[in-house]
Amino acid sequence: MTRLHEYETVVSWTGDRGTGTSGYRDYGRDHEVTADGPAAIAGSADPAFRGDPGRWNPEQLLVAALAQCHMLSYLALCSRQGVVVTGYVDRARGTMAQQGDGGHFTSVVLRPVVRVASTAMRTRALALHEEAHAVCFIANSVSFPVSHEPTVVADDTPEPPGPAGQGLRLPA
Question: How far is CA 84 from CA 19, 57, 126, 155, in A?
Fold first, then answer.
């Protein structure tokens, strides 16, 4: 039996500078994303498209949604299979190709760094990323490849190297 879930959001444009969309440079791309319950998200366009770099843009939100879905699916699988996760950080990256006035995402790479309670859990923890990817609702809904490059460390091992050789801090 198929269960349907519905999600409603409201996107409200807040970028009218007094002349509406009278010209391409005459209006702001600012908007708010709301839904019943959570706090509003301040949104804009990507700065490349005259957006405010201090606000979330739709492209970032899509990458974030993929990373969130993978993480939540992964944590659920770990909890069911006896893998104790003690930290999780993902620095995901999406690539979009612009073609004229439009474009499309060409890929998203998830790069979760996961800390588990013991070295004995590392192999299973690494394998569960494949299963999490297979059950992620968002990844199953997009038409571009979503890959993952996970790293799993145990609480008794040193921090993995992060960008530019710096250690990547994970929550305790």
Answer: 56, 34, 12, 10
